[in-house]
Amino acid sequence: MASLTAAEVSRQVDARHWRVVLGRLEATFRTGTFAAGAQLVGRIAEAAEARGHHPDVDLRYPHVHVRLVSHDAGGLTSRDVDLAAAVSAVADELGLDAEQAAPQALEVAVDALDIPAVLPFWRAVLGYVDEPAPAPDALPALVDPRGVGPACWFQQMDEPRPQRNRLHVDVSVPHDVAEQRVAEAIAAGGRLVSDTRAPAFWVLADAEGNEACVCTWQARDEAG
Known about the structure:
Elements: H1 6-12, E1 19-21, E2 24-30, H2 34-51, E3 56-60, E4 63-68, H3 78-94, E5 97-98, E6 105-112, H4 115-126, E7 129-130, E8 141-143, E9 151-156, E10 167-172, H5 178-187, E11 191-194, E12 201-205, E13 211-215
Parallel strand pairs: 6-9, 10-13
Antiparallel strand pairs: 1-2, 2-4, 2-5, 3-4, 6-10, 7-8, 8-9, 11-12, 12-13
Helix pairs in contact: 2-3
């Protein structure tokens, strides 16, 4: 099944609930009680079984987070759009709203001169595994086999960078949340290092120069 672009998916899903974040379709529903969350998860399971397509679901008081992706296609497809519509219908039936700004994904980035030399250390110390079936041009990455912790990816350095951090975090957020997140980080004492690649990502730093990138799918998607 053919993959859809982030722009195509964003146009097709219910914007009250769903956002594309780091190649996944995500929604966070306010349930209020654990029992209501469990009821929502049960109904999602029924919809998923009926379609033979299964999401990642995180039940915590007082929210349920749902993440969709077609692993066999290496991205988002019409199956994800269809299941998202079914989940939205269930949420409406149960009277549950979503927090549109809640979905996000955290990654740790390691800048390295010799990636093969450092990657095994991070694989061992984190208890991670190699990212399964990465894209042909993708940078090396490690993932939590339990699907809980943030991914760790490796960026090739051309030369040493004295006086600069070589670890940073990437925070992927909904496209319509990014500028607010950047502004809040700057207001909290941070500074803008670079916005030359915005809205794909903004590079920020704290008061001591530790860097973080706020990222979206925009400006990465040819059909954008």
